Amino acid sequence: MPLQANSFDCGVYVSIFMRGFIDEVLIDPKIQLENVIPSIKQRISPSWCTQKDVDELRLVLQKLMMEKMKNFELLTSATAAVKEVVNKQSSSDEDDIEVVEN
Question: Does the pLDDT of residue 20 top 70, yes or no?
C-alpha cells in the first residue's frame, strides 16, 4: 500500500483498502473469522491501492459530493419557496375571514 502523501486522502485510502479487503479476504469462503487478521497480512497487495486509484476515487467522491450539495440546495430553495407560498396563502385567507360578533 502506498503511503498517504497529504492530510486529506485518509478516507480515500480506507475506502480502497476496504474494497480490497472485501474482495480478497472476506469473499474467500475458506477464511474463518479467527484467521482473518493473519490472512490480511498475507494477502495485502500493492495492487490494492495505487496512487492512480486514490486520485480517481477522490475525483469520483468530489463529484458525488458536489451533486449531493447541489441537490440539497435545490431542495432547500424549493422548500423555502413552498413555505413562502403557503404563508402568503394563509395570510390572504385570514384577510378574507369575516369576524361576526354576537
Answer: yes
CA distance 36 to 28: 10
Mean pLDDT across 5-18: 86
Closest by Cα among 18, 10, 14 to 40: 18
What distance in Å separates the CA atoms of residue 85 and residue 73, rounded to the nearest whole number? Answer: 18
In a domain, 55, yes or no: yes
43/96 Cα distance (integer angstroms)? 75
Residue pair 20/49 in contact by the 8 Å Cβ criterion: yes
Q: CA triplet 14, 18, 21: central angle to 5 degrees?
A: 140
- In a domain? residue 101: no
Distances (CA, A) of 31 to 21, 38, 45: 12, 10, 17
Tell me which residue range forms the domain holding 50. Answer: 10-94
Closest to 47 (Cα-Cα) out of 10, 17, 11, 12: 17
